Amino acid sequence: MNDRTTSDALLRTIRTQVMWNRLISVVEEQAQALLRTAFGSVTREAGDLSAGVYDVQGRMLAQAVTGTPGHVNTMATAVRHFFDRFPRETMCPGDVYVTNDPWMGTGHLFDFVVVTPVFRGDRMVALFASTCHTVDVGGIGFSADARSVYEEGVCIPHSRLVSAGRLNDELLAIVQANSRNPIEVRGDILSLVSSNDVGARRLLDMMDEFALESIDGLAQHILQHSREAARAAIARLPSGCWEARMTLDGYDAPLELVARLAIDGERLTVDYAGSSPAQARGINSPRCYTEAYSVFGLKCLIAPDVPNNAGSLEPFVILAPEGSCVAPSRPAPVTARHVIGQMLPDLMFGCLEAPLEGRVPGESAGSIWVLAMSGAARRGPRPFNVMSVGLGGMGARPTKDGLSTTAFPSGVGGIPIEVTEAQAPVVFRCKEFLADSGGAGRWRGGLAQRIVIEGRDGREFACSAATFDRRDHAARGRQGGEAGALGAVIVEHAGGETRFEGKGTIAVPAGGRLRVDLPGGGGYGDARTRDPECVRADLEAGYVTEAAARERYGWPR
Amino acid sequence: MSDARIRLAADIGGTFTDVVIETPSGRHSVKVLTTPRQPELGVMQGIARVCEASGVRAADVGLFLHGTTLATNALIERKGARTALLTTEGFRDVLEMGFEKRFDHYDIDIERAPELVPRPLRYTVRERVAADGATLEPLDEAGVVRAARAMLEADVRSVAIGFLHAYAHSAHERRARELVERVFGEAGDDIARTVCISSEVCPEMREYERLSTTVANAYVRPLMAGYLERLRALLDEAGVRCPLLLMMSGGGLTTLDHATRFPIRLVESGPAGGAILAAHLAGECGLDDVVAFDMGGTTAKICLISDREPERSRRFEVGRAWRNLKGSGLPVRIPVIELVEIGAGGGSIGRVDAMSRITVGPDSCGAEPGPACYGRGGREPAVTDANLVLGRIDAQRFAGGHIALDATRAREALERSVGDRLGMDAFWSAAGMSEIVEENMANAARVHAIERGQAIGEFTMIAFGGGAPLHAGRLAQKLGIRRVIVPAGAGVGSAIGFLRAPVAFEVVRSDHRALDECDAREVDALLEAMREEAAQVVAPAAGGAPLVQTRLAELRYAGQGHELRIRLPEGAIDAAALASLADRYEQEYERVYGLRIPGSAVEVITWSLTLATVPPAPVPASVPAGEPGARPSGERAAWEPGRGERAAFALHWRFDLAPGARVAGPALVAEHETTTVVPAGWAARLDTAGHLVLEAQESAR
Predict the structure, then answer these.
(1) Mean pLDDT per 10-residue run, chain A (557 residues)?
(2) Where are the beta strands (DSSP E) in A396-464?
(3) Dihedrals φ, ψ of B647, to 5°?
(4) How far is Cα B211 from Cα A518, in angstroms, rounded to an integer?
(5) Most buried of A129, B168, B526, B557 (most Cβ within 10 A)?
(6) What is the mean pLDDT of each successive set of 10 residues along chain B, which is 701 residues long?
(7) Cβ contact A28–B447 (<8 Å)
(8) Interface contact flag, B354 A305, Cβ < 8 Å
(9) Contacts of A302 in chain B (CB under 8 A)
(10) Cβ distance A482 to A529 under 8 Å?
(11) Is A442 on the interface with B (CB under 8 A)?
(12) The pTM is what?
């Protein structure tokens, strides 16, 4: 090889990397545009959204860092489903497609997925897709009480939202007619469209700059290198087969999750055979959502630095029996899908405990507790409908304490009390750490919190308990660490206190208060080996009580 | 006697303190080492030297402008006062919970920056105000007194008081401050203690950010007050008796007294000075839209300046503690010049990841051990190593010749960390690092511009700071920018910026309601009150100079989470003015996001009023035409990224260039603290003000 060929090859290598970086930046722009224009606090304050770019075969090439893991794999496969209904050759410049089908999108009706093909001249060169949690899609609202998906709201099958530049207003009108928040829902869907446009424009700019007619070569490079990196990461693990189980509270009866992880060289398979069948109420996790959180959990420990795309996700094979609670068949209800879905990373961690001994954190509070509150407004006939989130503790890490009141695996954050109170006639009375809620261990599990809410001026209100799990089954510790505290829901009223069980709708009477104790994270390692300085500091701060220090940490030593 | 035309400016940075004096006969500047224990000593030393160099007596100085990173450093190094927090009962942990969010999804080891007030020093008291400002529960005064006594007991030196919804109703905070101060007054010792309230420091919705800002202010206040007092005394002693004004992060100057009370507003004064300088240069060069690009040792900062006004915002993060990642620092809400900060500097480290991709930063090797070529034990290749190997910098002349660079070590580090993995030699590894770091900066700039609906390709870039002139040309090519200016005195850009800054102060009020529910007369009265508040700060420092006001409303569609800042019409606010505001919002929304949301109510979140003196009018600079090409002093082979190969670069010494002389790229124009890379296809000329102006000569990128 002469010098010129060598340097051409090296230059090509560098330019390909530059373009790969650019693509990641483009989808980040797309996500930021969405974050700023979306309605509803769950999307804008907590970040429940996702954005990505795909090659013309529908393979995801890059996904924005901004967003939440539940949308990773779901988004990765969503685009291909569109091709089944609208073959590629029928897509035209100016077309935009939409769906909120839980099985074809991201797992529940609240998330609309919008896909925009990008054309350079007459030729399709890529597709952009984005999704976010809209405020309301009708049906019984945010609740696990539905018996089928039909009760959960309006479902839009794969449809053309914009046809050669013309907006399909009838379609939007159907969604709006079914929503309690028609203006916001329309705004959210249009925001998805415009965020895809941002991505499309930037991609075309990049193609101009690098004089590219297609991105197929770049796609090939990205997918191949990512696939190889993921495979190499898997191959570094010992081959073998491991199983983990977890019992959840369920809607009104416990359910069992079982996962078997098999690693054979650079092949990895998870099989959920043996998990409970689909549940009668809306906590089932559609297959796409199950895949998303399973792979997220595995990647956290196996290949955290490998970016998400079709290549890096491909080596992770997730099997789940059709009709189970992790792969329910239509029309199973699915609104509160994260009750099951967001527990799966902990289950994956359980499978990896043996092959990755000493590197696996304790279990976390898991599924975020969505505080979906509603009631009569202070003014006007329209009832209020507001969403906040409650976050428990994260599991202790092998070398440090778990993060307190932080969602894991979900990527969402808390919503400021002042924002929620400005939106709805509710008053928070407490949002404070719960002492002793973090599982004891050499490293302590993350602390949970207590949240107390009352209606403004003593009015009554309702709150859905759809997502409140880990009230009977705690986040377990690892390597001898103890479990985190259980969650609890108490209604305080004139006659005293009533414990609320199950995942139905909590009625808080006039003058009453809702008290929510979130679950804590599991501990790591033997509590009696915890550094005395750490125990002392915990005592001083009140994260651990004297009694617990004596009992669990053998204090004073 | 003091002469108003003689002005002095000092900028204390982490390593150097820059002092500049400007007199009718010219400008002198000096860099002295920062004296961290007593920063005022470095300042005085610098003042003495510039006075001597310019032949000015201390008593002649008419005005002294000052900016410092002292508050920032105290926050990052956790060296502030022992601070307590008093907050609403039930919300003791808001400060520690933060955003309750992981800033990196996949890294299970992340850690948050520890809060400034640990739990034992967080006290609560019964009281409650609702979102609309109504009192739900009165303030428990006995509880405040009990807490204050406990604080004395705990040897607290500074107190932050922050109650829920205090931005809507501040009476409880004010009363609590009174009570705490009374208890402290009765302590009978001589220890100074200070109390800050959130409704004064940061009267804005969102409890965590408001508390975080108030606590940070309380935390640095004793330290800053002590420093400013000592500095004032030393100045008086040295005969510099002129007024002292402090540079704030929002780009305005304020009085010593105000700075002492709200030191948190000083945190980003250095970068603000840079942005002000760029805005001023835009005026000098007759440009409307410029992008300021400042690249130092650990980060690069990019700021968009439209119509000669830097963009402002009120969100900033101090000290990103975990791998320099966004979200890992302390949030503060203060008026700041809006800029993006990227973990891309001379010290940013290059590596190869699992996908065989070269990555650069966001972490940096800092000054110790520094890049491998410093020869102080650094083994990882930094951007400076890459620039050295690429032939862009002269090993003998780096940092004014203070640091001799070792190219062999740079090559070894590049091969070890990058080349060996990718089958590249040190030169190509360096080329890859350079392209990636430039790409990272270009991406950040592009995202930043697009978020604001700006077409960055039509901007002119102004590059200053040690690293920027090396990368500005390539960055401009990537962004489609066709003109780059490397100003005279680029090395002390922030301090020169202070000299160009107006005396200014921004007052904000959260007032969350639908725009069509606002009573125009109430709004007008509110703005008038805000003007008076601003005038109290600005007037004493303005010395009778005329003042201009800028009034903005932060608006959004009801239900959204991000606001756009819209300028209010001039004159009294009436119903028509409010209606026009909604129109302006929708126009701006459409410009930025490409659509409108019909039927959705527009709501106001915050009113803002800035009162400022009129900045000095720039003296137009021009590039003399028709000068012949400059004769290079030599030639060096260096990386030419646009061509993707090594090319012969002509070497020039900036101070040998005559105004108007044309330097055709590829060329390197060296000066004491940096080197400007003129890419192939570009040409550079000095203008009459001494700025180096680079222009693309052809359409090729």
Answers:
(1) 69 88 90 82 71 95 82 80 94 96 91 96 95 90 93 96 95 95 89 92 91 94 95 96 96 96 96 97 94 94 91 95 97 94 96 94 94 89 88 96 94 89 94 98 98 96 94 97 98 95 94 98 97 96 97 92
(2) 426-433, 449-455, 461-464
(3) -140, 165
(4) 24
(5) A129
(6) 84 83 88 83 93 91 90 87 98 96 90 92 97 95 98 97 94 98 91 94 92 97 95 95 91 88 90 90 90 87 89 84 81 90 89 90 78 91 96 81 86 95 93 94 86 83 90 95 90 86 84 87 93 86 85 86 85 90 89 76 89 81 75 93 92 90 92 89 91 83 42
(7) yes
(8) yes
(9) none
(10) no
(11) no
(12) 0.89
Does A499 reach chain B within 8 Å, measured CB to CB?
A: no
Residue B688 structure tokens: 């009459």
| Beta-carbon count within 10 A of A90 CB | 10
Longest distance between any two alpha carbons in chain A, whole Å: 89
- On the 0-12 / 13-18 / 19+ scale of CB atoms within 10 A, B465 is buried
Contacting residues of A for B90, CB less than 8 Å apart: 428-432, 452
Q: How many CB pairs under 8 A join A and B?
A: 216
Contacts of A421 in chain B (CB under 8 A): 130-131, 165
Separation CA B196–CA B161 (nearest Å): 6
Sign (positive or negative) of CA dihedral A57, A63, A67, A69: positive
Dihedral sign (CA B473, B476, B482, B488) = negative
3-class SS at A29? helix
Of the candidates A338, A364, A114, the one whose C-alpha atom is nearest the C-alpha of residue B108 is A364
Chain A partners within 8 Å of B130 (Cβ):
421, 427, 456
Residue B80, φ and ψ in degrees, nearest 5:
-85, -165
* Tokens 């719960």 belong to residue: A434
**Terminal C-alpha separation, chain B:** 56
> Cβ distance B93 to A449 under 8 Å?
yes
DSSP symbols for B168-181:
T--HHHHHHHHHHH
Is A322 touching B (CB cutoff 8 A)?
no
Residue B205 class from Cβ within 10 Å (0-12 exposed, 13-18 middle, 19+ buried)?
A: buried
First to last CA, chain A: 71
- Cβ proximity of B431 and B474 under 8 Å: no
- CB of A355 less than 8 A from some CB of B: no
Q: How far apart are CA B57 and CA B180, in angstroms?
A: 46
Dihedral angle, C-alpha A425, A429, A435, A441, nearest 10 °: 20
How far, CA to CA in Å, does A434 sit from each of A406, A412, A530, B215? Answer: 13, 21, 20, 23
